[in-house]
Amino acid sequence: MTAPTLPQGRRLAPPDVVTLGAHGMRTRPLRAVLSALGIAIGVAAMVAVIAVPASAQQALHDKLAALGTTLLTAGPGQSFTGGTVYLPDNAVAMAKRIGPVTGASATGKVTTATIRRSDKVALGDTSGVAVLAAKDNLLGVLGGKPYGGSFLNGGNEKFPVVVLGAVAASRLGIDHVDPAHPTQVYIGGHWFTVAGVLDAMPLAPEIERAALVGWDVAQQLLGFNGHPSTVYLTAQESAVSDVRAVLGATINPKAPNEVAVQRPSDVLAAQELTQSTYSALFLGLGGVALLVGGVGVANTMVISVLERRREIGLRRALGATRRQVRGQFLAESVLLAGLGGLVGVLIGVLVTAGYRC
């Protein structure tokens, strides 16, 4: 008597393997969805933590390129005795004597006056807006421009007019300038007409939160002492470091150590470096999330194999080879990971697009 002949195994085509893998996923749909969700969360986290910081860093880089890095500021530092420090009256003129300097201007804090929307507003309610005396060439040095109206000039700087920074105008409730219907604010017991509102100035945020009046008017009406509190200057890009090194001694030869010199663009550069550090940290966290999702898929497949031992035995009895069985479960895991990865990429792209908007 001859032994029974076992059925011969047949090589499965790739579409057949994919079909078997998809069938295995359909038998446990909830488990498949949850496993794919773990991968989706990990991939979305990876895409977001790479794309969002990269977008922010590129925005900062573009801002630095647009604003330039040639601006320097000088202000009163600290004295050895701890007393009040003032810059000399002629600090701007002294700064202009430095060869590579291409422009210089100044503002001065008017500590004897406050600004209010009207004389009916309480004396202490200044809306966080400072009053500064300004030179008429300030915008040219800072590269700023009026959002509405005009800046101080030879025709109006000797009159009680004021130019508001973008934030100051918002806090005072002034969103436009209409020459036909002039707006006035109350500064130091005098009415000043709003001549203009400035656009945003990222390299000089203190200007955005200030009310700027003419230098002479500030001295005549508001008790300004005439000492500049901040000197702004621009220099040739190749000589910025050299100008920075001699600026203190130039504008205040008697006490160069009492002059604080800064480069506003360094703040943006520091922000860019900080974002790079956080990007690396978030990338690591995203990798952990992706690893957790991968472990979840592996766990699902292990449990699936244990639960389907009878199915595996039946397939083996019908002639399926070990390789074909492995291919079925491998196809299931690839489909799970692929589905989760695709959803994760879409979520990450949407998050990045939402951040950019």
Radius of gyration: 35 Å
Structural class: alpha+beta
Mean pLDDT: 82
Overall geometric form:
elongated
Helix % is 40-55%
What string, H for helix and E for strand, traces the elements in order?
HHEHEEEHEEHEEHEHEHEHHH
Q: Give the number of domains.
A: 2
Major pleated sheet? 11 strands, mixed
Number of helices, where a helix is a run of at least 4 consecutive DSSP H or I residues:
11
Distance between the termini: 80 Å
Describe the structure.
The chain has 357 residues and is α+β, with helices and mostly antiparallel strands. The protein has 2 domains: 14-63 and 270-356, no CATH class; 70-264, no CATH class. It is built from 11 helices and 11 strands. The chain has helices spanning 14-27, 29-67, 91-96, 138-142, 166-171, 205-208, 215-221, 240-251, 265-307, 309-317, 322-356; strands spanning 71-76, 101-109, 115-116, 130-134, 146-149, 161-164, 184-187, 190-198, 210-214, 230-235, 259-262. Strands 1, 2, 3, 4, 5, 6, 7, 8, 9, 10 and 11 form an 11-stranded mixed beta sheet that branches. A hairpin with a 2-residue loop joins β7 and β8. α1 packs across α11 (322-356), α2 (29-67) packs antiparallel against α9 and α9 (265-307) packs antiparallel against α11. The termini are far apart. The mean pLDDT is 82.
